[in-house]
TrEMBL record:
Gene Ontology cellular component terms for the protein in this record: cytoplasm
InterPro entries from the UniProt entry: FAD/NAD-bd_sf (IPR036188), FAD/NAD-binding_dom (IPR023753), Ferredoxin-NADP_redctase_2 (IPR050097), Pyr_nucl-diS_OxRdtase_2_AS (IPR008255), Thioredox_Rdtase (IPR005982)
Sorted UniProt keywords: Disulfide bond, FAD, Flavoprotein, NADP, Oxidoreductase, Redox-active center
Signal peptide positions on this chain: none
Limits of the FAD/NAD(P)-binding domain: 7-297
PANTHER family from the UniProt entry: THIOREDOXIN REDUCTASE 1-RELATED-RELATED
Matching PROSITE patterns: PYRIDINE_REDOX_2
Protein name: Thioredoxin reductase
Amino acid sequence: MSDEIRDVVIVGSGPAGYTAAIYLGRAGYRPLVIAGALTPGGQLVNTTEVENFPGFPDGVMGPDLMDAMQKQAEKFGAELVYDDVVSTDCSGEVKTLTLDGGDVIHARAMVITTGSRYRKLGVPGEEEYSGRGVSYCATCDGFFFRNKPIIVVGGGDSAFEEALFLTRFGSSVTLVHRRDEFRASKIMVDRARAHEKITLLTNAVVDAVNGDGNEVTSITVHDVVSRETTTLPASGVFVAIGHTPVSDFLNGAVATDDDGYILVDGASTRTSVPGIFAAGDVVDRTYRQAISAAGMGCRAAIDAQSYLADKLDPANH
């Protein structure tokens, strides 16, 4: 693997990565997909039923959808490696990627589809009780907290969407936000204010997630104005404070914005480095949907094909 120069390598394996692999595979480029060591398939593998992906009128389970995408990519010649990229050298026409397991991969083109990860609170108890009361996905875990008190942390549309969704399950839903104004749209805030199960707690910062060793029992918050500390009962704590794009492994090789989202040229997927393309949630801070990521993966594949066609003799394919 270390000596061969590949035509194209895809880093990431969510809807964007697999779609790019399908298109590049069908074009004859035998893409290598660096799928990730722990979470191949992206965030959808942690999602239960997906009801808004076109073509599935009865919905589809997230893992099933990603499994089908993977098989389709492999059918057209994509090769998968379950490892993580730890460093890159993108300075020349041939890009070099070093994997955590020690393999070194060389490729003429690279498509980055590494997505984003949930932003965490970074408070005591959060890691300890992750999966045991602390969650980052209401649709995945809401049903575990039927008739129990639920906390949602955040102030944007996603936090309000989660709070409203969780009213189906919880005995109460308290949305905790560090400011006295919300980033969320007015209609979302109005809906929450009107809902009998939802309480909005503003100017409040979570200091700790507390539990009995097995599961979450409460959170500790303090008021940023009065400095008063309060303990709120909670069985479920849903953290919805945004996402962090997974672009740090590039170590500044391509241009990003201040938050780490990769910058692309207009409606294309071209990055600041020729031969490197990016698609999906690592680019998209606005939509973050499986279908929009898949569409962008298609565009990245076509952009990469165009780039490779200029670099390679078409007779080789």
